[in-house]
Amino acid sequence: MGRLSSEDSYSLGRKNTEARLQAEALGGDILWVLTPDTVGTAALTGPWTRNVLVQAQNAAGEVHTWLNEVIASGNSVGDTSTAGTATIVSTTLTIVDGEALVVVSGDAQDFDAAETDTYTVAEYTGFGGQTLAVKTSVETFS
């Protein structure tokens, strides 16, 4: 049998890893991980944005790169600001290769000390009937 090219070897290794991760997910080893899960920010008086990385990982921190899913009503954002409003572009969460980058934005109103915005990924039951529990990322203004 001939030698595999480096490209073929990489492709085979990725397929083996994805097969292992799928088997782990079927066994329940899959969860949402949000980065950052908490963040502190100075009080603001103008528009702002922050990024939240959403990943489907196993307990060892490996990303389930095989997961590609469009989840209607998969995420939301809320806030405790008396003047400002936090928003996201869409409540549909699109996972590509096990992850999504979500931009949380605040309008031009004040976000004062002790006010928060909370980004939430909804509970999701998908691959093999496994359920990924609700996760949040909270930004607290100081």
Describe what you observe in this structure.
The mean pLDDT is 90. The protein is mainly beta and 142 residues long. The protein has a single domain, classed as Immunoglobulins (Immunoglobulin-like, Sandwich). The strands form four sheets. It has a four-stranded antiparallel sheet with strand order 1-3-8-6, with no helix packed on it. The protein has a four-stranded mixed sheet with strand order 2-12-9-5, with no helix packed on it. A two-stranded antiparallel ribbon has the order 4-7. It is elongated and about 65 Å long. Helix content is 15%, strand content 40%. The longest helix has 21 residues, at 6-26.
Topology, pairings included?
Blueprint: H1 6-26, E1 31-35, E2 38-41, E3 48-57, E4 69-71, E5 75-79, E6 86-87, E7 93-95, E8 99-106, E9 116-121, E10 124-125, E11 131-132, E12 135-141
Parallel strand pairs: 2-12
Antiparallel strand pairs: 1-3, 3-8, 4-7, 5-9, 6-8, 9-12, 10-11
Structural descriptors:
four-stranded antiparallel beta sheet, Immunoglobulin-like, four-stranded mixed beta sheet, mainly beta, 15% helix, 142 residues
Which structural class should the secondary elements be placed in? Answer: mainly beta
Beta-strand content estimate:
35-45%
Secondary-structure element series = HEEEEEEEEEEEE
Assigned CATH architecture:
Sandwich
Summarize the structure.
With 142 residues, the chain is mostly beta strands. Helix content is 15%, strand content 40%.
